[in-house]
Write a structure and sequence with these properties.
Length: 376
Amino acid sequence: MHRILLLYISTNSGHHHAAKAIEESLHSLEPGIKTLNLNCFNYTNPILEKVINNVYNKVIKNKPEVWEYLYDNPVIVRRTRKFRKLIHEFNSKKLKKLIDHFRPDAVICTQAFPAGMIADFKKTYNLNFPLIGVLTDYSPHSYWIYDNIDTYIVPSLQTRQRFVDSFIAKDKIFIYGIPISARFGAPTDKEATFSSLKLDKNIPVLLIMGGGQGLGPIEEIIFAVNTLDVDFQVVVVCGINNKLRKWLERRQKLFRKRMAILGYSKNTNALMDIASLLVTKPGGLTTAEALTKGLPVVIVNPIPGQETKNTEFLLSEGVAVKAKDALDAAALIGELLSAPEKLRQMREASFKHARPDSAANISKLALKLINDKKKG
């Protein structure tokens, strides 16, 4: 019976959902397999995790240009190398306890921090289990580069080339896409979804999302689209942002458009099935889910760094448009909803990049790597 350790950081993040998607697939492929899906940062540094998460959220909200400077900056990568190594060494005692107790046949990491930590741990203790790094955005950064990561899973040819340019062997890199739940690859009951949301199945649906945190200028976008004369209805997903949800609910009667206001949703796949257009910040998981559903995207407020890179990919492939602000978003939404041929072209472009079987392919590869290692 195989044993696989999955590591991510930040609960309810894209990294977490990617790890869950792989875990679900592993259990589907091999019933009885032992998996442990762990928030690595919380396990090794619970207090530091809270501090860093708070700092990160404040920087993104108030000084996004600072994060843009820090993200994948080769000077910062070089200057923090010793510091990162010290953190890895500091965490090695807890990691050793975890590895000795669980005895994994392979480790899968959906974020660079645990991948680097396990890579150094393997080197320190001369361990040879397969270590798989799974990218959850469309552009890699230098914090992923470690000799002891055996296999990389990337979302696109461009991403693979960036790793090859960083002297990662091409045969270690697999273009499987970003792992999403298998339910996104299956159709849903659209009529049931329309009915549950009290929406009209004959009117286009604008789906507005701000990720799990409910971030972005959602209030401004709602007011801006309220001025459009195009016929559509709105579904807003607020995530865990209860303040946003209550704000919208208090003002719902002011809006001319029919609107469904949701909190944290576990049925995003069903919402995407009924949507004609998605308005969102381009997180990696949301992007991969939208591509799988063939859903055109209006990008607003991308987080500097990873989401800016995702934006570049989506724009280059013709599956999205980018708004400068809420008013610009409303204008683009009006144009697209009035141009069915343009929406059709964007849908077709989306489907070309859809990889609904990513989690299954990653799981199959992990099991193969384990078996090859045992045979060798």
